[in-house]
Amino acid sequence: MALGTTIKTIQDIMRKDAGVDGDAQRISQLVWMLFLKVFDDRDAEREAMEADYRSPVPKRLRWRTWAGDAEGITGEALLDFVNNDLFKSLKELPLTGKNAALAGVVRGVFEDAFNYMKSGTLMRQVINKLNEIDFNRQADRHEFGDIYEKLLGDLQNAGNAGEYYTPRAVTQFIVDQVDPKLGETVLDPACGTGGFLTCAIEHLRKKYVKSARDEEKLQAGIFGVEKKPLPHLLCVTNMMFHGIEVPSNIRHDNTLARPLRDYGPKDRVDVVITNPPFGGMEEDGIESNFPAQFRTRETADLFLVLLVTLLKRGGRAALVLPDGTLFGEGIKTRVKEMLLTECDLHTIVRLPKGVFAPYTGIKTNLLFFTKGEPTKEVWFYEHPYPAGAKSYSKTKPLRIEEFAPEKQWWGKREENEQAWKVSIEDIRARGFNLDVKNPRAVEEGVGDPVALLREYEAAAAEATKVRDVLRDELAKALRGQA
Predict the structure, then answer these.
(1) Which of 246, 258, 329, 440 places its Cα 20 to 30 Å from the Cα of 217?
(2) 180 lies in some domain
């Protein structure tokens, strides 16, 4: 059976369970089980290759022991084991011995994980389907990587969980342009499910890794921090899918909770790539970790200040920010002035609406900067919709191929219909407002009246159809209650 079909079957089984409510819980349930399966497959691989390897997970808790036999424990016995032994023991796993770091990864994953399933029989069915996947088989591992990406994308339909997912085309373009090198430290301080970090791993392996020593450097240089438990679990599992043997550098923490003054030279990194949360507010007291002139509870502003602090001199950063940060005043102005004074903000790629659809329609921007020299001029590049398109959607997302013109322009910059530059003097005169419109953009006007009327009539007809369906369903429900 194809892996995609296997995962769909697992999700269908979970839908029958009374304890699993919605996409977010279903994915959380699936991923802690996946984590243990992947971990055990890697344990088996290491045991075959390293004579002295000892798993940090006790034998009775290892996947192969309690889940590997299709005729193994099920029903109430399985639920009792999972709820009262497996979870309890993994949350308290001793952090001692040669594999203490690996034990810490397992303990961190289960610290905030939950078993939502209430039927041990259905859980056994899920386990048996998962056992059809061999994560030590290259073909399975490669195919499952694509399926996992789709699962992460499905989080867009899981309420606020959608904030965890950045479109693959955006992460890949940012990594390609920042071009992390082997031996550099790469950090995502709001790493979500690990999209930027997995792109960086693939980039480094493709361009720079030529030996086992190179691979060791890569593994030692990937760092991430995630505040929320579900995306942290997803990210750690994602790192294991991508060959990070001990993903202990993926911490479950809030990067903003540490006072800015406490960061020293050992905390600074070469590369920061991230899509920090925006539009939200941090809890009371977080702003006190920042200098008085930058105190706000707006998450995106705090992360921008943090990024500048975390970079080494000469370090490079790229991040996603909403339009509101570009034109915002007050504290936002002071943050932008600091950024332009301490860093060379050399490029802003302006993305159109819909890139993050259906989660949000807010227009976003990709900011690229290097720490150490002040900004002299900022280049803007307005990314257009592909020919014939008026927006993006879940079924027609932004594709990496669309960034080809930016990549071609990047190394040999000239002003054109999509690109223009603004001097620091002009930016200062604008009060550090970076919401600079394309001077060559053609105003489309209100549009063709005949075409607009057709669109209105089509929308009205669709609304009438939906209203009639709802009316019929309501009438049917009321008849059923009578």
Answers:
(1) 258
(2) yes
